[in-house]
Amino acid sequence: MHDLDILKEIGNRARAKYFEILKSHGDKLGEKVSKGAYGHMSSFMDVEVENEIIRFVDENNLPFNIFTEERGWIDRGEKKTLIVDPIDGSNNAEHGIPFFSVSLAITSGALKDVEIGLVKNIPLNVDYWAIMGQGAFKDGKKMSVAKEKTGLYVLYLGRKANDKAYQIARIGKRVRDLGCASLEMITVAEGIADIFYYSFKNGGALRIVDIAASYLIVKEAGGLVLDEKMNELNMEMDFEDRKNIIALSTRELEEVFR
Questions:
Q1: Cα 189-207-183 angle, rounded to 5 deg
Q2: Order of strands, edge to edge, in the sheet holding 195-198?
Q3: CA 52/CA 71 separation, integer angstroms
Q4: Do 72 and 79 meet the contact criterion of CB atoms below 8 Å apart?
Q5: Same structural domain for residues 196 and 218?
Q6: pTM score above 0.85
Q7: pLDDT one-digit tens code per residue, 34-70
Q8: How far apart are CA 112 and CA 70, in angstroms?
Q9: Are 162 and 201 in contact (CB under 8 A)?
Q10: Domain span including residue 135
Q11: Domain of 129: which CATH number?
Q12: Where among 114, 143, 172 does a domain terminate?
C-alpha cells in the first residue's frame, strides 16, 4: 500500500472513530481524562481517536515511528515518522462546530523533510493532501494558491494574539478566525485566503503536529510558509518547539508584515 493510501485509510478510521464516540459517548467528548505529551489535559475524544490511529499502525506493522499530540514520541525503530494530530480544532469538535480535522504527515526528519501530508475535514469528509514535488490536491483535484488577491486574511485573534494580528486585520478586506489551524492554513493552498497568520504575544503559537501536513500542502500549492522573522519555516520533532507562523499565497504579501 502506498503511503498516501495509508494516510487516507488512517483518516477514514479517525473520522469513523469520532462519529462512533459522538454516538455512544457524546456527553463525554470534551471530558479531560489524562495529561498529554505537551503537559495539557487531553480530552476523551482526542485520546480515543489517537488510540485508534496507533492501533492501526501497530496491527498492520506499518514502517513508522509515531509522534502524536497526546502520547508524544513512540519509537518503533523505523526511519520515517508519522506525525499525528488526532483532532485539530478540538474545541470546535466538542461543541458541534463543523470545522475540525485529523492531520497526518510522514517525515524522515524535521518539518522541512515532510514527504506526504494529509488533512481530512472530518465533518465534510474532504481530503486535502500533498506529495513532495507532485503538487497539492483536494479529493484528487489539483489545488493552487490564488493568482490574484482575494482580500481574505485568516488570523488568530484570541486573547493570546500578538498585537500585530489586529493591525493586519484592519488591512484585510475580510477576516476569519476559525479555530482549526490545519484547515485554516489550507485556505491559502485552496486559493480562498491570501494570508494565514498565527502569532502569540509571548512564545510560539503552533507545534509541528498542528501544521506538518498543511505546511507541505501550502508549499506544493505554490504558497510560502514562513516564521515570524520571515524566514522559511522549519520545526523539529520536539515538544518544546513552538513557532508563530505565516502562510502567504505570494511573496508580494510579505509587505503586509513590514
A1: 30
A2: 174-176, 152-155, 195-198, 245-248, 224-227
A3: 12
A4: no
A5: yes
A6: yes
A7: 666 665 667 888 999 999 999 999 999 999 999 998 7
A8: 22
A9: yes
A10: 3-143
A11: 3.30.540.10
A12: 143
